[in-house]
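Regression check, pyridoxal-5'-phosphate case 410:
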Amino acid sequence: MESTLEAPALTESQQIIDLEKQYVLQNYGRYPLVLDRGKGCYLYDLDGKKYLDLISGIGVNALGHAHPRIMKVIKEQSAKLIHTSNLYFHRYQGLLAKKLCETSGLDRVFFCNSGTEAVEGAIKMCKSHGHKISPDKYEFIALDDSFHGRTVGALSLTGQPKYRKDFEPLMPGVKFVPRRDDAALEAAFSERTCGIFIEGIQGEGGINPICTRFFQKARELADRYDALLVCDEIQSGVGRPGVHYSYHLHQPVIMPDIMVAAKPVACGLPLGFVVANERAAAAIAPGMHGTTFGGGALACRVALEFYEMLDELLPQMNRVGEYFRQELRGLQSKFSFIKEVRGAGLMIGVELDRPGKQMVTDGMAHGLLFNCTHDTVLRFLPPYILTEKEVDLAMRGLKKVFQQAKRTKL
Ligand SMILES: Cc1ncc(COP(=O)(O)O)c(C=O)c1O
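Current build output:
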């Protein structure tokens, strides 16, 4: 008689995961969750289980999922024109660039496809600016705990050894300073400095806002040494902090020479940009920089639609973000392993006295998606359309997650 002990059939999710494991470069530590569709602030897996999305594809899906206005422009524009290359003009680049200049207070835009590519563009601007003054003016300053991307230039400015160690030596001439140390900042500057990179609120490094005093000092030193001040707004900008860009949080506003952004700009389509003042923009002449895909018609039109909605969303984002932090502080009073709740707008971090990875997994089991950065910081980057009702739902789930963590002896 033949054996009836056959292996059980693999679920569709398992088949998808196995296929990825066999054929995709194993550079990500993914959670075993296969997503199928989304609507508003919610995502659904293949079995139809519903999740509240509090991470938005790491700060990308600004209007959540399947937003009717974004769906409409994608449908219309994809039927007309998706990509032209930068050999020709199309309707939307100039219009979007105007919007970005008006909202940032800067003068000229270069479009690209991702955050790291925007950082590379800014690095080249700084290097060329320095080169015009002296061949020795090529040094950069960046901050400890910073994250600027994975390409070699951006990685060279990333102040976290774990990302850098396998690829050294990287770009020469980069000095790192602690984010609150004005004296170290002053000591790092010299006539050789061509640029300084600062994230307005450090994202990957643990949701660390940069204080006004330090930012002001960076501005003064950049002016004194004729270097360019670059603000990396890839995670902390484009509305996320409750204002257009995080440098607007300082009073009075401290202007960078260059600002880079990406993530939420085209609501999930790849689009990044560099905006520079005329002094920085003058460093790039025709032929010195470019990209095939950057600033395509579809991505730019979606970004324009998004920017049209952004001003109206900002008051709600500030209100809901404040409520989110206030409710988290309520939980902090009940769970002593929560050390601090911080952030601005809808960029929120919860610092723990222990690793947060297990809480992320437990959160998924309770239908919540968020992540953990810098080992001990729970990070929330929800869609801009989040409401108080969804915050309440998040709190009910988080309470269970924290109760579970309290019961677990570490
Ligand atoms: C502040 C900051 N800069 C740069 C990057 C790199 O962006 P991308 O992953 O789009 O290349 C990131 C990504 O998380 C970021 O948070």
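Comparison notes: Residues 58, 114-116, 119, 147-149, 199, 203-204, 232, 234-235, 262 surround pyridoxal-5'-phosphate (CB under 6 Å). The mean pLDDT is 97. No diff flagged against the previous build.
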